[in-house]
Amino acid sequence: MKTLNDFNFKNKKAIIRVDFNVPLNDKFEVTDATRIQAAKPTIIKILEDGGSCVLMSHLGRPKGKQDEFSLQHIVAKVKEIIGVNVKFVDDCIGEKVEDAVANLEDGEILLLENLRFYEEEKKGDVAFAEKLSKLGDIYVNDAFGTAHRAHASTTIIAQFFEENKCFGSLLAREIESIDKVLNNSEKPVLAILGGAKVSSKITVIENILDKVDHLIIGGGMTFTFVKAQGGSVGDSICEDDKMELALDILKQAKEKGVQIHIPVDVIAADDFSNTANTQVLDVTEIPDGWQGLDAGPKSLAIFDEVVNKSKTILWNGPLGVFEMESFAKGTIALGHSIDKSTQNGAFSLVGGGDSVAAVKQFGFADKVSYVSTGGGAMLEMLEGKSLPGIEAILK
User: Fold this and answer.
1) Could you report how far apart the first and last alpha carbons of the chain are, in Å?
2) 35 classed as catalytic
């Protein structure tokens, strides 16, 4: 696996695929700069070697060229975070861009305009990728969030850089962290899967059953498993057409010696609302008119014990509707348990949009071993799929 450390960038121009698809407010100000911050080590290493950086990214889902999706809006924030002046060119291919790159001196940064202003980017167009490839001596992919897409800038471009291509430090860490959980883990290994639907996590569960010792199932998925085993789930979210599958997963786990832990009690509410009436109920005895929206206290005590005897922990999905304060206690308690286990030497990886949002919201981001930056890409790796953006560098 080629990384930045395999190259000296002195007098070289690195064309870097970063993931600067960051949220903007109505004044076009960056409201969460995590992804820019994540790219900083790669950029700094190249500049300190004596090279220059040509940065390319997409932003949002533009339909052609739309000013609201221009990367011009983020230039000031990139400059602030990297601590180096950032030049900008309002296109990503063509003569104007090639001139700007030619005039780029060692130690300088140039940010290109939004790649998705061109349809060719998402289509993985070879001619478009070749034009991008002319803008650098070495290709660096540091965009894990788009590594599962075979787009021109994430995958196709790599073919024009036979030996001169590598992973940036962020993407390398992502690969190493997921590999550590799936293939090089210290036992016992625990996976915590939450979220609303079993259907969105089936392939993940099936792929990791051979690699884990414990599996905690939480969130809305709980009720499909409970109802499949004859429990009453009231008005809780439940995929009736996935109950057979839930039973099959339980059977597979038993055969493989994997202990599955499902909540034994829940915080139930009489409405999907932060101000609803609530009560703690046995997970198998939820009456009509009530729905489980968070894991209950007995469940959290059991989960805490499992978390704290685990040496490798993967967390993907919250335990409850954490966006509402009344149903956030389970997810917060789980965060504390993982924090404690990490302090005691466990390796903990958090990934998936909702989990990442939760650890940031409740202050756990720096208390776990690693927080993944790519939701969809991480899920596909957990499912055992090979990601085109990663394969393109390994070829």
Assistant:
1) 10
2) yes
Which residues lie across from 280 on neighbouring strands? 267
**245-to-20, 203, 206, 218, 248 alpha-carbon distances in Å:** 38, 11, 11, 16, 5
Q: Assess whether 219 carries a catalytic annotation.
A: no
Dihedrals phi, psi of 126, to nearest 5 degrees: -70, -40
Catalytic-role residue among 35, 165, 201, 227:
35
**How, if at all, do strands 265-269 and 291-295 pair?**
antiparallel
DSSP for 19-78, written as a single string: -----B-TT--BS--HHHHHHHHHHHHHHHHT-EEEEE---S--SSS-GGG-GGGGHHHH
105 close to 63: Cβ distance less than 8 angstroms: no
- Neighbour tally for 172: CB within 10 Å: 21
CA distance 395 to 391: 6
- The residue annotated as part of the active site, out of 60, 107, 376, 384, is 376
Residues near 44 by beta carbon (within 8 Å), at least 6 away in sequence: 82
Q: Which of 60, 107, 353, 384 is catalytic?
A: 353
- Confirm whether 234 is a catalytic residue: no
For 104-130, the pLDDT digits (tens) are 999 999 999 999 999 999 999 999 999
Tell me: pLDDT of 16 over 90.
yes
Task: Name the phi and psi angles at 101, rounded to 5.
Answer: -70, -40
Which tens digits make up the pLDDT trace of 372-392? 987 788 888 888 889 999 999
pLDDT digit string, tens, across residues 208-258: 999 999 999 999 999 999 999 999 999 999 999 999 999 999 999 999 999
> Which whole-number Å values give the CA distances from 277 to 273, 289, 294, 331, in the listed order?
9, 11, 13, 20
Single out the residue of 221, 383, 185 nearest to residue 318, CA to CA: 221
376 catalytic residue (yes or no)? yes
Residues whose CB falls within 8 Å of the CB of residue 61, separated by 6 or more in sequence, listed in order: 69, 116
When pLDDT is cut at 50, 70 and 90, the band that residue 62 belongs to is very high
Task: Give the active site residue among 197, 309, 340, 360.
Answer: 197
Q: State the burial class of residue 334 (Cβ atoms within 10 Å of its Cβ: 0-12, 13-18, 19+).
A: buried
